[in-house]
Write a structure and sequence with these properties.
With 311 residues, the chain is mainly alpha-helical. Helix content is 55%, strand content 5%. It contains 14 helices and 3 strands. Strands 1-2-3 form a 3-stranded antiparallel β-sheet, with no helix packed on it. A hairpin with a 6-residue loop joins strand 2 and strand 3. The relative contact order is 0.09.
Length: 311
Amino acid sequence: MASIHIEGFTLLVKKNQRSKETLKQWRSTKKKIAEFITHTFKSKDPELSEIDQSFAHKFHTFLIVKRKPSIQQSAAMKQIKNTKQLLNIAETNKWIISNPIEKFRCGSEEPEILPLELFEVESIWRKNLSIDRLIKVRDAFIFQCFTGFAYQDIYNLSPQNIVKVGAENEKWLIKERGKTKVTEMVPILPIITEIIAKYKDDPYCIFHKKLIPVNSNFRYNYYLKELSDLCGIGRPLNSHLARHTFADLMLNTLDFPLEDVSKMPGHKNIRTTQRYARIKKKRISKKMNLSKHLLFDADGQLKKTELPPFI
């Protein structure tokens, strides 16, 4: 069943109607289902009729406890959600009477992701690095922080994605997002201009027609962990954190409206952006006392403040 779905999905990828990253996720689901079946069932290829309501619960336990290596709760729920979708396809094709795990709730409380503070972003950007691979990974991560683009989208960026907008011919990055096929559009800030210019004559970028050099997803995430340690951030760096940081910077630092921020990273609806922005309210009270010291002098007069020049 999974193989049939993947075959059809592969054809859609070849027609550029679905993303390669999503195809990788389906293949990963197929692999994990196969591991679970081998572990749980006597037959390596059980009949669909053998799947009952307990399948999802057992699969969940296998993924987070028994599997080597185990995976996190959110990742396990994603695998079960994909499995439920496969069984829905089986029901549609009348291979089964009904989806036996339809009532299993895949929703879970998403962990709150605290965006990086502006000073942390600047410390990463200003860090003196001597290793070329880490310099390129740092530049790609900073690029994400100031565009909100996902890994797949910065990997596929080309000079053609730079578009002049408006009467003043402002340069924007405009691209169809690989995951959702929604157009993402972001004004090119000075720091992004600097990064693009840095790799204009890079041999890799010229040969592959890329805007910036980006490693494979595995290497990118692996090197980001090393970069986090070198910069003393104290927590892992990843693309998801970069996107949250972008939303936070646009909303709280540059004061873009929520509706505008929703369009920039290619969200399908504003509810997705609201999840990125919900931290804003929680940070207000925390920052109020700090802002009094930063914005006002000893006499209570408002100080002149400016955004960092790299923005």
